Amino acid sequence: MIDSLNSALRRIPTWSLYLLGGLYPVWLLYLGMTGSLGADPVKALEHVLGTRALQLLILGLAVTPLRRFSGLNLIRFRRAIGVLTFAYVALHLLVWLVLDVQILSQILVDIAKRPYVTIGMAGFVLLLPLALTSNTLSVKRLGARWKRLHLLTYPAAILGGLHYVMLVKGFQIEPLIYLAVILGLLATRFPLTPRRSAV
After folding, report:
1. Quick check: 183 and 58 in contact, CB under 8 A?
2. Phi, psi of 134 (to 5 degrees)
3. Is the pLDDT of residue 4 over 90?
4. pTM for the model
């Protein structure tokens, strides 16, 4: 079953992910312009883009555990998932900056005084060098340093989960589930038992 699924996945071109990922925000914008995103389309657009970015981030974190524990191989799509994650985070931020807050001084105040905004911006800053080096030339030039640099995905994911938890009003289970999944996926990166040192 897994072999058949992996074989089918190998026939899917990676450019199709970029195409679908690029069309989805356009579709959301169309829904917003036609009144299909509710009474506050800007907030709805901002929320949906942020949620999809977090989901893509989780999917990227899940690639290695899925291959290790189930044999499902999504490695060839990981770069596309990462690039789309950053694109959706950037669009989420852009909607907040341009369509929601709009006033530069208020933006700076929010970043400085609202913890969930500060954490969200910190996560974006961590993702920025990852997006800039998500190309073949950077992989070749950086060598082993490229893998170390891309470990920034881990704290960025935690900050993204915390941003969502702190953003919502009152107690809501969905953001906590996202954060728990992120922490669970990160926990799979570490051995369950410490390695014994040689005597």
Report:
1. no
2. -85, 55
3. no
4. 0.89
